[in-house]
Amino acid sequence: MKEQIIDKITQEVMRKMNASNAEENKSKEKNICGLTEFVGTGRGDTIGLVIANVDSSVHEAMNLDKKYRSIGIIGGRIGAGPQILAADEAVKATNTEILAIELARDTKGGAGHGSLIIFGAEDVADARRAVEVALKELERTFGDVYGNEAGHIEFQYTARASYACEKAFNAPVGKSFGLVVGAPAAIGVVLADTAVKAANVEVLSYSSPNQGTSFTNEVILTFTGDSGAVRQALIAAREVGIKLLGTLGSVPVSETIPYI
Amino acid sequence: MKEQIIDKITQEVMRKMNASNAEENKSKEKNICGLTEFVGTGRGDTIGLVIANVDSSVHEAMNLDKKYRSIGIIGGRIGAGPQILAADEAVKATNTEILAIELARDTKGGAGHGSLIIFGAEDVADARRAVEVALKELERTFGDVYGNEAGHIEFQYTARASYACEKAFNAPVGKSFGLVVGAPAAIGVVLADTAVKAANVEVLSYSSPNQGTSFTNEVILTFTGDSGAVRQALIAAREVGIKLLGTLGSVPVSETIPYI
Amino acid sequence: MKEQIIDKITQEVMRKMNASNAEENKSKEKNICGLTEFVGTGRGDTIGLVIANVDSSVHEAMNLDKKYRSIGIIGGRIGAGPQILAADEAVKATNTEILAIELARDTKGGAGHGSLIIFGAEDVADARRAVEVALKELERTFGDVYGNEAGHIEFQYTARASYACEKAFNAPVGKSFGLVVGAPAAIGVVLADTAVKAANVEVLSYSSPNQGTSFTNEVILTFTGDSGAVRQALIAAREVGIKLLGTLGSVPVSETIPYI
Hints:
Radius of gyration of chain A: 20 Å
Pfam family, one (chains A, B, C): BMC
Keywords (chains A, B, C): Bacterial microcompartment
Shape of chain A: globular
GO molecular function, one term (chains A, B, C): structural molecule activity
Subcellular location (chains A, B, C): Bacterial microcompartment
Protein name (chains A, B, C): Microcompartment protein PduB
Oligomer: homotrimer
Largest sheet of chain A: 6 strands, antiparallel
CATH architecture of the largest domain in chain A: 2-Layer Sandwich
């Protein structure tokens, strides 16, 4: 039997297997389920939901601010930074408040967090709008997440932090804000050092597997400063991060488009 | 080269690959290992074990009630609710006590818990019997766990809660008890609201990634009430849960037979 | 179409798929990235790094002993015991101190920990040397880690514990030290009991999913005693562990060479 035929068959088999994967992905897009609570889905196995009038006993058990009966919810299996930065834009754009940000130990076997973010609103239309904005922003905020088979690095930037960044990271509202993540955590230590040495920024917080994370294998540094300095720190750390994570596997890549 | 031949080969290759998977599964059934401590295995990578007379220094380090030298152990990689409800039946059926229920962050890369449950008994035969009953019950208690590539939803019900449900969830002994889980956690929020709105039940506890779970990406609601109301709440939440989780992937399915 | 041809093609496809996996592994070996911070990589997706002079604000945020400006870092996605025992040898061999040992909930979807270990040194050459020694020792310390699709068991031994074992496990410095891990945790309970019954050893600590671990699905027992007793306890537990874990899947194997 000729080598070329085997090659051709192999390719064909692989093509068909990939095709069946693609079909599986396609099925993820059928996001109409007929429930009024459902808003949409987004990157990172993220779902967006809304409850017009939360049952009072559940509301109490959730320990939410009593002012808001309508809530918007976004939560994903993969990622916390992208969802928090997306929620930050949503809060700026709508008449809502961030009631809770909770970070699971997740990423589906990866090194990081999953996320659950709850918006409060007096009017359900505002809650729904916040969820819609956040889901749409995810495409951008996943832009500077770079992964390979060994881990991931993540960079987030906003010129003007709002209430989601304040709640999650104690970021000063209205100021430039940057976030650097390295996983495995050892890489994050070097990225934190690189960022702070590259520009005149002020450290807000340093989180590690046993402190400030939900036992993720990450080191996370957050910082503030003037807009140019924050971006410079992020760009320097990103360059180093891609090289370091690459030593443990293939070249780390973004799944969307880098925005920093 | 004809398209049909390629198709046939593709099918054949896939069939053979599946066959080798099946063989792997088959090897899991060879659960005779010749150790007196071994009782059996069950769904969810669960193992059942027994120690007739725990070494005193280990017993002390485990911080167990000194009354019991014989212990039965069930522990699995995947699932906590199914194992706890199975242990609940085991406690009803045997002369044993629940000494410990510990929940790891696990499910092998999934969104939920693993479990470790320890029964105490004065006689090793009772401990062994409890483990046997629990392993057998697992087949049923996994019945209302529905999963897909994005997460899982789970529903548990008992007409008469016993000491395992009391220890794990503060369920009132002898009363109807229900449990709703949604993962990713965002789905669990809506399921909790749905359950409580569907029937007249009393909320016992609400757990979320940062409170009451081991940082799982779940929201868990437990409740009590009369038997019909508890079931009605569960059935309503289940219907919504299957739709919501389905928006993130394929149709969620149970691996065994739903019992609620 | 003849059965033999299908078989041959199937084999060929599988061979090619394996080959592409091998190539992927090979790419992991290209560990030169041109950064002075990079030292090397090792088993368990472990990376070794060094910072000659940590930025003062990061140093403060990390809450490290101010005495040391140079730090060595090893951190991996898979494993904590192997990295800690490797760091223990590194501390013996170099003029460094263990500043931090942090354990993430990781192992890439497995049942155990990842790790982050930080060495402090006055001279960066010492920090680098410690990292080099630790990375090299990993090959040995992974020797008694046995895994299969359901979990893992791990055994560690040192005739003379040093400061890494002291920091992580309260091991008495200079004395024999042993560590037994079973995952899922249920298996670890029986291994703990087996180890202590097999020889005259003194229990140092017992960790379980909810206490002393980062919510891993493990039970970990550490103990001290005379060298022969510690080894005897480990060997007895290892024999039982391989049998028990084997009931949940295939025969557990070590990826390197057992050393105990």
